[in-house]
Amino acid sequence: MEKKLKVILDTDIGHDMDDACALAYLCARTDVDLLGVTTVGGDAWSRAELVSAVCTSMHKPDVPIFPGLETCILRHQYQDHNPQSFVLEKYPHRSDFPKRKAITWLSETIRQNPGEIVLFAIGPLNNISILFQMDPEIPSLLKAFYWMGGKFAEYDYPTFTKKVNDNVISTATTGNLMEWNAAIDGLSTAIVFEKDIKTFRSVGIDITHRVCLTAKEFKERLKDKLPPILSDLSDAWLDFDPTDSRVLTYHDPVCVTSFFNDKICEYTRGNVTVETISPKLRGFTYFEIDPDGRHEIATDVNVEAFFEEFGDTVEKAK
What does pTM read for this prediction? Predict the structure, then answer.
């Protein structure tokens, strides 16, 4: 029997639907041993319950789950609640999680499996930074570290229309200076990027923003392939989307699927530095190309390859 890949997921699941999609994809892969999931951000316990609901829906009810850190370093926590917790009323889930064990569990598990674990982080890096500070040897014990976060190039959001006081306006905005996962706790982001990891890859929002579906495209192309919980979370985001653009963007699953399918992302090697001095710019990510650099960032994405990989894998496990 082929040995399964050992994986840990660190997630701030609970805002848009993409964290749940990335988790479902990992649950669906028959070649993955999902050792456990840690949550990060405010209301971490509720986020853990949502992880359990997704895992249960994907026929993996016993995946270990650990609520993680809710605080940031030297700043207020802006992700203070879990708006997608409404699905917990509908879908079975566990609530019996260990308290205050996330960081020690990460350390112990990685140490028990040196060089074997791929750690996917698809949220702010609070848990990971404290892990690396508490146990400085951990980065060298990972097989690979993949993070969905950062912004490494300019991009434009899609143009959309919005009705305001009976006036229809067209809006197109340039991508924000900061990326959410990097900026929530910029000091944690900086701590992680200072560590040496054998394979350290980041998929920034300048790449993931290209991988999206309108409400119509979602219904025609992907909705029927998804388990009901992902369909419900996707519909809720389309109803909630504060931009009124009604677009589903698959930030986190692009990062995760790119490990398993090298047709999805192209990576460029170099060095990432993170702004820490300016309070308003903490978490701003800079990238410089260097063939001998410590980091790799995604510099292109094959949208069709992603949807084929993600949709087909999740559909088979429904």
Answer: 0.93
**What is the tens place of the pLDDT at every residue in 125-177?**
999 999 999 999 999 999 999 999 999 997 765 544 444 344 433 344 445 67
Q: Is 213 left (phi over 0), alpha (psi -120 to 50) or beta?
A: beta
